[in-house]
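thoughts on my protein:
***
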Amino acid sequence: MDKIAIEAARLLFSDGGAGWIVAVLLGLACLHLYRDSLRTLEARIEETGTTAAALERASQTNAAVAAALESRTRVLEDLTRLSGEIAREVERSDARAREKLEEILRRLGELQHRPRA
């Protein structure tokens, strides 16, 4: 870059002022490069904004998935606790517990044999 500047300055004062044309062309080239670099930076800023928005949407989705998983975990814990209680009642030969289990199994069987719409 330094060589170009030195050569442009030398041509500016040589050949009866023909270097002014070179200086004007060099100035126009610099102006074009400046505007092009501004467009590039604006595009990068826009791309960064788009990326940030996508990351924000992804984090919101991840938070929703985590909440759903936590809810399902609580349901599974409740089901585990309930089945443990029923198993303990069956071990004690509680007739009501056996009736409950038979009713649950009967309803599950009905659901399985029901035609799907």
Remarks:
- The two ends are 77 Å apart (CA to CA).
- Residues 2-113 form one domain.
- The helical segments are 2-12, 19-91, 95-113.
- The CA atoms of residues 44 and 92 lie 71 Å apart.
